[in-house]
Specification:
- Chain A is of the alpha+beta class.
- Chain A folds into three domains: about 110 residues, Copper Amine Oxidase, Chain A, domain 1, CATH 3.30.457; about 120 residues, Immunoglobulin-like (Sandwich), CATH 2.60.40; about 190 residues, Zn-dependent exopeptidases (Aminopeptidase), CATH 3.40.630.
- Chain A is built from nine helices and 26 strands.
- Chain A has a seven-stranded mixed beta sheet.
- Chain B has two domains: about 40 residues; about 140 residues, no CATH class.
- The chains are: A alpha+beta (about 475), B alpha+beta (about 200).
- At the A-B interface, strand 25 of A face helix 4, strand 6 and helix 5 of B.
């Protein structure tokens, strides 16, 4: 059966009105963005006040599971303890009493807190900045923001090019989820998983095909709305760092909603997961790693090198995530969990250490290789077993590029944590002080050389790593 | 009236008693200090007897980033557990001397060694072994490879080894080398070859 355009339009309008008349309020969500992960949790209404589950909020940030003692629930995060008592309006966070502005509720065994408490709670527990866009229900931990610039090009086929500071991926089927209609007047891009922020409210471009761009935030998401007088085609490129909106070509203009993501559509269908490199600046917080005299410690060197590597990879069009952006504690197991949960394409741990000179590249070495016990499950200690040959390929490619830069390179297989717990191809790169001069570990030139070589090595073997579990 | 010579004799006797007392107190303190010093220097476990053997130790040399076989004369008991412990201690003794090819922290020692089955051994180390170990991938792996290879060369039949620190599991030796897993000696043998 073929539906006419008018029929589709009528059905859509009917659905819209059905939703409006039924008064079904859209489900509310709070979204938390961190450098390691982004996640959403439901916001529930209790007596006109918005509540969130403390477990859902804190567990992804590395908190311990709640322990119930009488009516008191205890959590710990970053060595600070949270004590909440059912029915009370005060909580103890890191030894200090905090007003909650509402009672602690327990619903189906889950501790619920008023949403107003999210900022003071996270602010006291996390050793980093926390921004809470409360009306929009969006929480930003650390400097995790993604920003964008808009470039309007007028001409025969006007287009609007949006360039993002990080790769973005608008929700694929947001029209269905939110009951919002996309029509010839408006194209709305919904970003739930990207920490997109902007000072822009509305930018006008005249009264042609593309008339204006506006940015807004609501219900744990950011929205970019482009108004115009034609149906727009949405093209995502540069690994998600660029989105172009332009009028559809006449031969395809009859096909209604934009296909998402549309470039390169056939390839994207084959690989639903976006390829990205997870960089792990090893150590951090109380774990200083190796000391090189004075204030020079491994945790600072690895973070600097991680930032340099991110820059080099992004310049080569490869998406990157850092496991830590600041001087925070992160356990080895948590590093592996985050990498596995986010399905990293490649994991690169950065280290600095004595003795010797140059750079050492390590591939994982399983101390006790085991076959899967049943089905797909692997013991945690040998989670790497399915990816070890690809890890060796990455290590070889990176070593080759480092040698091309004239660096002294040693390649080894080593039983390292958390490499053996990572399910993706994983390597560790260790910078050694040249001629036993610790200051050489701080050399920007050396960092640039090493970061560029690692990035080039990854570019070489990227095609072999994409689309694999 | 007391004769003068009697007064002098009594005074001399009292003086002699006083001097003897001071000397005795001084000697007692000295002896206590020596005993305490000896106790601190003593190994964690009692010294064991055994037959002196000429054994091979695989030692780490930081300067060369290498492992090299060296021979040593060590008293090794017949009991398998004690033999394993003394073998490991003979490696650590090389690292604790000055100058050291691979310096480890003072207090580094093997507390206990036991088999959980015929081929799987647990090595319990002192807290200083991990707490004071220099941090670095290579430094940590050289220590473990040196201990495991020396052990398997001198105590046959071990195929898996796990390290504890002060009776407890620890994630890593000093931030890098895995201490949670059981090390298969065959895997470590291949790793050690890379450094020999």
């Amino acid at each position: 059966m073929r539906w006419s355009k008018a029929g589709v339009g009528l059905a859509a309008v009917a659905l819209y009105f059905a939703l409006a008349v039924s008064g079904a309020a859209p489900e509310q969500h709070l979204t938390v963005y961190t450098s390691q992960t982004n996640y959403s949790l439901p916001v529930l209404d209790h007596g006109g006040k918005s509540y969130v589950s403390v477990t859902d909020l804190l567990l992804p940030l590395g908190a311990t599971k709640p322990i119930l003692k009488g009516k008191e629930w205890k959590f710990a995060l970053n060595k600070a303890e949270v004590r909440l008592t059912e029915g009370k309006e005060k909580a103890t966070i890191g030894g200090k009493q905090v007003e909650l502005g509402g009672k602690v509720l327990v619903e189906n065994g889950r501790v619920m807190l008023p949403m107003d408490t999210v900022l003071p709670l996270l602010g006291r527990l996390l050793n980093t900045t926390v921004d809470f866009h409360q009306p929009a229900m969006r929480v930003f931990v650390g400097n995790t923001f993604t920003r964008f610039t808009a470039d309007f090009k007028n001409g025969d086929q006007p287009s609007l090019v949006l360039n993002f500071s990080q790769p973005v991926k608008p929700d694929a089927n947001h029209e269905e989820k939110r009951g919002v209609l996309t029509n010839t007047d408006k194209t709305t891009l919904l970003f739930t998983k990207d920490p997109l922020v902007s000072d822009l409210k509305t930018q006008q471009y005249g009264d042609g095909v593309i008339q204006s761009l506006s940015f807004s935030e609501e219900n744990g998401a950011a929205l970019l709305t482009v108004s115009g007088n034609k149906l727009l085609q949405v093209v995502r490129s540069d690994d998600g760092k660029t989105i172009t909106l332009q009028a559809q070509a006449p031969e395809v203009s009859a096909v209604p909603p934009p296909v998402w993501p549309s470039v390169p559509s056939t390839e994207t269908q084959k690989r639903p997961l976006e390829f990205f490199v997870m960089i792990d600046p090893s150590h951090g917080g109380t774990d200083k790693g190796a000391s090189f005299g004075g204030k020079l410690v491994e945790k600072d060197i690895t973070l600097r090198l991680a930032r340099d590597l991110r820059k080099e990879l992004e310049e080569r069009g490869i998406a990157v995530r850092l496991l830590r952006e600041s001087d925070v504690d992160l356990s080895l197991d948590r590093r592996a969990e985050i990498t596995n949960e986010q399905r990293a394409g490649i994991y690169v741990a950065l280290h600095a250490g004595r003795p010797g000179k140059g750079v050492r590249v390590y591939a994982p070495l399983l101390t006790n290789p085991q076959q899967p016990l049943a089905g797909r499950f692997l013991p945690w200690e040998s989670a790497q077993s399915g990816a070890i040959s690809r890890s060796q390929t990455v290590a070889r490619a990176v070593s080759d590029e480092l040698r091309k830069k004239g660096l002294t390179v040693t390649s080894l297989g080593m039983p390292l944590r958390p490499l053996n717990n990572i399910a993706a191809p994983a390597i560790a790169v260790e910078l050694a002080p040249d001629e036993e001069d610790p200051q050489s570990l701080e050399s920007q030139k050396r960092h640039n050389n090493v970061a560029a070589a690692i990035a080039l090595g990854i570019v070489q073997i990227r095609s072999q790593m994409e689309g694999r579990p | 009236m007391i004769p003068r010579h009697f007064q002098i004799t009594v005074a001399l006797v009292l003086l002699a008693i006083l001097i003897s007392g001071v000397i005795i107190i001084h000697m007692t303190h000295k002896e206590e200090a020596l005993t305490l010093q000896a106790a601190e220097a003593a190994p964690v476990a009692p010294i064991v007897g055994g037959r002196q053997e000429h054994i091979q130790l695989l030692l780490a040399y930081d300067e060369d980033q290498a492992l090299r076989w060296r021979s040593a004369d060590v008293f090794l008991p017949a009991d398998r557990n004690l033999r394993a412990r003394e073998t490991l201690r003979s490696v650590l003794a090389q690292y604790l001397q000055m100058p050291s090819p691979h310096p480890l922290a003072k207090g580094t020692d093997i507390k206990d060694v036991y088999f959980i089955n015929d081929d799987t051994m647990i090595v319990d180390t002192t807290a200083a072994f991990a707490d004071g170990h220099p941090s670095g991938i290579l430094l940590e792996e050289l220590t473990l490879a040196s201990l495991i290879e020396t052990l398997t060369a001198n105590v046959p039949g071990i195929s898996k080894i796990k390290f504890l620190v002060d009776g407890k599991e620890r994630e890593t030796l000093a931030g890098h080398a895995d201490l949670m897993s059981f090390y298969q000696t065959a895997v470590v043998h291949e790793l050690a070859k890379e450094f020999e």
